[in-house]
Amino acid sequence: MIEAKKINFSYSKNFALKNINLRVKNGEILGLIGESGSGKSTLLKILSGLLSQDSGQILFENEEILKASEKLVPGHKEIKTVTQNNTLFPNISIAENIKYELRYYQKSYQEEKLKSLADLVKIKHLLSKYPRELSGGEIQRVLIAKAISDEPKVLLLDEPFSNLDSIIKKKILFELKDIISKQNIACVFVTHEITDALGLVNSLVILKNGKIVQKGSSEEIYFSPKSEYVGLLTSDGFIINNVSLLEKLHINEASKILLRPEHIFFKNTGKIAARVKHSIFKGSHFEIWFSIENDPDSAYYFKSEIKIESETAISLDFEGYLILK
Ligand code: ADP
Ligand code: MG
Q: For position 95, which CATH number holds?
């Protein structure tokens, strides 16, 4: 288990992490989400012991771990980080790269461990190759094998899969979830792509400008965002403040509503008159962009199985939208 308690840290006047509290149990994945520059990587560096917090504690299995500034060699051997960087040695094979992590063990253990890691992350066929012969997804698998080779208790992932194709990424994420639970590792998974995190994590922490603005399960965060920031980070959506529209929906003017594409329904008898602007082909569906009557500059979309011609007048209903305040 790894835990952050009342962590404060600043690089300068411009950016600070403020009062960060979080906890990840063994076998679980915590998703850390926030826009670029919100402090995700900084927080991971503090968790891994590579950067010293100004105040607060990092606890590993209930014991405080030394700050980077208090140690000769920063970092903690039970805590491993994987980022987007390819840290493999280019001139030795994949097998040698992984065995390098196991260099202090007996040869027979190294071979045995290499085999089981290769099985676990599905890279058996790559062991005799060199890093330059591997694709991005294969390299990331090898980096994970390296990171978990010495059986760490904590795995910190800083957007390691962000530049992979979506199908390969999904496959690796499923495998990762399996590994985390089989090896009973506590994992923090940082991403700015919420769709990667929603189905993967046991809980989510949302960072904004160095502060935690919401914590909860994926469902809680998705269905009950506390703010516009969280609402729009978790899905496409629109903030509605058109007064006449709010009136039609019988919503108090002071409220702010968050409308997601799935809240908008095309209905002959719908309460809201709209005009179609564009239909964008998305493969499995069309995104129908429209403006609301009396507000020609507004732009929202809903998903439709059929294309609708531009300038068509349609009527819509909004159901299940979220009221933010
Ligand atoms: P994220 O990973 O969420 O994109 P970071 O933790 O990398 O965010 O950065 C948070 C803020 O701290 C940003 O404003 C960034 O410019 C700043 N920052 C990051 N690293 C340093 C550094 N070494 N020195 C000064 N400022 C930094
Ligand atoms: Mg980052």
A: 3.40.50.300
Statement to judge: residues 214 and 109 lie in one domain: yes
Query: Per-residue pLDDT tens for 192-224?
Result: 888 888 889 999 999 999 999 999 999 999 999
Q: What is the DSSP letter of 177?
A: H
Distance 36 CA to ligand 1 centre (A): 9
**Residue nearest to ligand 1 atom 24, measured at CA:** 11
Protein residue with least CA distance to atom 26, ligand 1: 11
Q: What is the pLDDT of residues 37-80, one digit of tens each?
A: 999 999 999 999 889 999 999 999 988 888 877 877 777 889 99
Four-point Cα dihedral 217, 222, 223, 227, nearest 10? 110
Q: Are residues 52 and 185 in the same domain?
A: yes
Backbone phi, psi, residue 221, to 5°: -65, -40
Ligand 2 centre to CA of 153 (Å) is 22
H helices then E strands: how many in the chain?
9, 18
pTM, two decimals, is: 0.88
For ligand 1, atom 20, the nearest C-alpha belongs to: 42
Ligand nearest to the CA of 162: 2
Based on the fold, state whether residues 13 and 69 are members of the same structural domain: yes
In a domain, 285, yes or no: yes
